[in-house]
Amino acid sequence: MDIQVEGMSCQHCVKSVTEAVHSVKGDATVQVSLDSGLVHIENLDETQRSVVETAIEEQGYEIKN
User: Fold this and answer.
1) Taking a C-beta distance cutoff of 8 angstroms, is the pair 7, 49 a contact?
2) Can you tell me the distance from the alpha carbon of 4 to that of 56, in angstroms, rounded to the nearest whole number?
3) pLDDT tens-digit profile of 28-63?
4) Which domains does the chain have, with CATH numbers?
5) Is pTM, for the whole model, over 0.90?
6) What whole-number distance in Å separates Cα of residue 1 and Cα of residue 18?
7) 24: which residues sit within 8 A by CB, 6+ positions away?
8) Given 12, 20, 37, 46, which residue has the most CB atoms within 10 angstroms?
9) What are phi and psi of 50, to 5 degrees?
């Protein structure tokens, strides 16, 4: 699953977004690209997308569709 996230600019952002994903599914594999704003998540069902997006938004980031 790929989610486009706006507002990430540093390693703290990477950590915050990764922790947000792990709060939904602890064993998910998360790759964050600061350059593109793309968060790539493996081992997560598409049915959990809205929960993950909400967790990321609660960290202060904006989801782009």
Assistant:
1) no
2) 11
3) 999 999 999 999 999 999 999 999 999 999 999 999
4) 2-64 (3.30.70.100)
5) yes
6) 14
7) 44, 48, 51, 52, 55
8) 20
9) -65, -35
